[in-house]
Every structure is written in C-alpha cells, then in structure tokens.
Amino acid sequence: MAGKRTAPKLVDWQAAEDAPRRQNSRNLFELAYEKIEGLIINCELRPGSRLSIQELQNLSGFSRTPVHQAVGRLADDTLIVVHPRHGLEIAPIDLTRDRTLLRLRGDLERFVIQLATERSQSTHRNQMLHMSRVLRERRETLTVDAFNVLDRRIDKLILSAAAEPFLEHTLRPLHTIFRRIGWIHHTQLSATGGLAAAIDCHLAILDTVANRHEDRAVKATNNLITFVESMFEAIEREVDPSLLDASLAPLI
Predict the structure, then answer these.
(1) The pTM of the whole model exceeds 0.90
(2) Do 226 and 154 fall into the same domain?
(3) Does an H or E element contain 68, and which?
(4) What CATH number should be reported for the domain holding residue 28?
(5) 134 and 234 inside one domain
(6) Cα-flanking dihedrals φ and ψ of residue 47, to 5°?
(7) E strand or H helix that includes residue 212
(8) Would you say residue 249 lies in a domain?
(9) What counts of helices (H) and strands (E) characterise the chain?
(10) Does residue 1 belong to any structural domain of this protein?
(11) Angle 89-90-91 (CA atoms, 0-180°, nearest 5)?
C-alpha cells in the first residue's frame, strides 16, 4: 500500500519579500538613532533648544519614519522632550539630576563589569585587548569626538561580554547622558588636562576585564565613576548656564 502523500509545504512569499524590507527599516532606525544621539552628545542639538521633526530630518539626513522612531526611543531615554503640537525639545542638562543618575550608573556598571569578567569569551577578550592597543597608540592624537566613538564601542563590547540584554537598554541612555557631560567638560573648560585621565580609566577597565581580574576591574570602574563625578564641580563653576539650557539668556 502506497504511503500517504504529504502536501507540499507552502512558502509564504509575501513574508519572504517583506523580511529584507523590515530589516532595512530596522537598520535605518538604528542609524537615525545613532546620528541624532551623536548630535545631542556634541551639543550640535543644544540642550534646551526647540525644533520640529522636519528640522531634525534635515539635520540628520533621514526620512520621517526612522526619525520618528528614533525620537520615540530618545524620548524614552529622557534625552528629548516631545511637546504635542509644539515640536521637540532637546532635554536641558540638569546637573543635580545627572549627579543622582551617576550613582545609579555606578551601581549598574559595577554589576556589568562583574558579569563581563565572569562571562567573557576569548573573542570578547581579544577585542578588548585590541581596543586597549588602539587607545594607547592614539592616546596623544584622539579628539573628543573620536574618543566618544571608541567609548561607544567599548560600552557595547563590555555589555556583549556581560550577556544580559536587559542591561543594555538600561545603561544606553545613561552612557549618552554622561558622554554629553564629558563633551562639555573637555571642550568648554580650559584646564581639563586633555583626554589622558579618561583614556587611562578606560584602559584600566579593558585590561582588567580582559585578564579576568574581577576585583581590580570593579576598582577601575569606581575610578571611572569618580573621574566623571569630578567634572561636575568644574562645570558648575565655569560653564555658562546657557550652554546647559538654551532657553536661558547668555550671561555675557
């Protein structure tokens, strides 16, 4: 007796055609987010300034849909304030709030570093050591903007090694908030000593995590948080408040 013939499996051609389109849309969203985030970090989008979605499209070079999606995430990150029917506001820098958030970041970073030290694979450690070499080689020539690009890659690498996706969503906006603080510190203050201290803090973290020295990695993380905390007093003392909130009139 002949076996029962199995009906041929139907291919969902529409789903197959839509998959690359969805992936492309996702890529555009991520690219738009990173572009706008960068404009916020380097204060091309001034803290406290107002603009429309159309103006943000023009500045970022992306179309309406990915910009809308990016604005939604940045609003969730508390980096953009959406005023219905009145456009967008780039979140002003509130130094008191940011100091409180730095305590939260410190607790989360210590946990992430512990996980990364425990869970990192050989591929992660290889990349960390490569990042460390790049920082050492470019130590004297790095600009703030170039350093921030490397800093983003270091953060992603550490989070990848920690292997806990929830932490990425929690730490991402905190990293952006403090990159903007760092950008102001290094570009608006004359007596910062350059990027040497920031580079040394990151080198210590990369080297200790790559070599799986957990206690030393946590100590290096504490040193980084202390370094970031030291920026606040100088910014409070020397930076014109209108640079932290564009709605305020310049003092000079």
Answers:
(1) no
(2) yes
(3) helix 64-76
(4) 1.10.10.10
(5) yes
(6) -55, 130
(7) none
(8) no
(9) 9, 3
(10) no
(11) 105
Judgement on whether residues 122 and 82 belong to the same structural domain of the protein: no
| 8: in domain | no
Q: How many folded domains does the chain comprise? A: 2
Residue 4 lies in a domain: no
What's 76-138 look like in SS3? HCCCEEEECCCEEEECCCCHHHHHHHHHHHHHHHHHHHHHHHHHCCHHHHHHHHHHHHHHHHC
Give me the residue label for tokens 């991402």. 172
pLDDT by residue, tens only, the chain of 252 residues: 455 555 555 545 455 455 455 556 668 999 999 999 999 999 999 999 999 999 999 999 999 999 999 999 999 999 999 999 899 999 999 999 999 999 999 999 999 999 999 999 999 999 999 999 999 999 989 999 999 999 999 999 999 999 999 999 899 999 999 999 999 999 998 666 689 999 999 999 999 999 999 999 999 999 999 999 999 999 999 999 999 999 987 766
Last residue of a domain, one of 73, 90, 107: 90
- On whether both 122 and 185 belong to a single domain, the answer is yes
Structural domain ending residue among the three candidates 35, 62, 90: 90
Let me know how long the chain is.
252
The pLDDT value given to residue 1: 46
C-beta pairs of 60-69 under 8 Å, 24+ apart in sequence: 60/32, 60/35, 60/36, 61/35, 62/28, 62/31, 62/32, 62/35, 63/28, 65/25, 65/28, 66/25, 66/28, 66/29, 66/31, 66/32, 67/32, 67/36, 69/29, 69/32, 69/33
Q: Find the domain containing 221 and state its range.
A: 95-241
